[in-house]
Structures are given as structure tokens and as C-alpha cells.
């Protein structure tokens, strides 16, 4: 049995295969967030060994993360946000290797 999702969590997404690997999560005391239990047992391309490599699961996770930032996914990639030169931290010069001038 897995521990319940604690009250300080705002969003929990749990992928599991029933029966077998993993189990649905349950909300703990004081949990008021959003909880999604996703059983991937019907997707025969996903196994215990391949669940982290599944294009479907990865796309779902990226979508969840991007939704937290409030930004839009364009062509499956998030465009880089340029950092103004005035806000870039000065990088210290690399030290010369020992014994080299």
C-alpha cells in the first residue's frame, strides 16, 4: 500500500498498472488538491519496464508541467525565453588547470 497524498500537495498524477505494478493513490487527511490515478493496463505498449519511456506517458507529463507554467506548447517544444543581458549573472572566469599558465 502506498502512503496517502499529503494535504500540502496541490496536484498529484499517478500512473500505474492494475493488477501488478503500482496502485491508485488515496488522498490523505486535509488533501484538497487534484488527484489523478491513471491505469495504463489497457495500453499493451506500456509495461513495468517501458512506462518511463512511453511517448504517451511522457507527453501527458510534459502537458501537466507546462500547464503549471501557464505557457503554451508549440510543436511539442517550449520556446526558450530570452534573458535580458542586464539580468544575466556575470560568470567567474575559469581557473587555469593546475600547472598550466
Overall description:
- With 101 residues, the protein is mostly loops.
- It has a domain at 11-76.
- The protein is built from one helix and two strands.
- It has one helix at 55-69; strands at 11-16, 34-39.
- The radius of gyration is 21 Å and the shape is flat.
- The N and C termini lie far apart (60 Å).
- Mean pLDDT is 77; it is low at 87-101.
Structural class: little secondary structure
| Rg for CA atoms | 21 Å
**Order of strands across the biggest sheet?**
1-2
Portion in helices: 10-25%
Strand content: 5-15%
Provide the low-confidence segments as ranges: 87-101
Tally of DSSP helical segments: 1
> What shape does the CA trace take?
flat
Mean pLDDT: 77
Tell me about the biggest sheet? Answer: 2 strands, parallel
Q: For the terminal residues, how far apart are their CA atoms? A: 60 Å
Number of strands: 2
Order of helices and strands: EEH
SSE layout and pairing:
Elements: E1 11-16, E2 34-39, H1 55-69
Parallel strand pairs: 1-2
Amino acid at each position: 500500500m502506498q502512503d496517502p497524498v499529503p494535504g500540502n500537495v496541490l496536484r498529484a498524477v499517478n500512473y500505474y498498472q492494475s493488477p501488478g505494478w503500482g496502485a491508485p493513490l488515496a488522498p490523505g487527511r486535509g488533501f484538497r488538491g487534484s488527484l489523478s490515478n491513471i491505469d495504463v493496463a489497457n495500453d499493451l505498449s506500456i509495461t513495468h519496464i517501458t512506462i518511463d519511456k512511453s511517448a504517451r506517458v511522457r507527453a501527458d507529463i510534459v502537458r501537466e508541467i507546462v500547464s503549471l507554467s501557464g505557457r503554451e506548447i508549440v510543436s511539442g517544444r517550449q520556446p526558450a525565453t530570452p534573458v535580458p543581458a542586464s539580468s544575466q549573472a556575470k560568470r567567474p572566469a575559469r581557473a587555469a588547470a593546475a600547472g598550466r599558465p
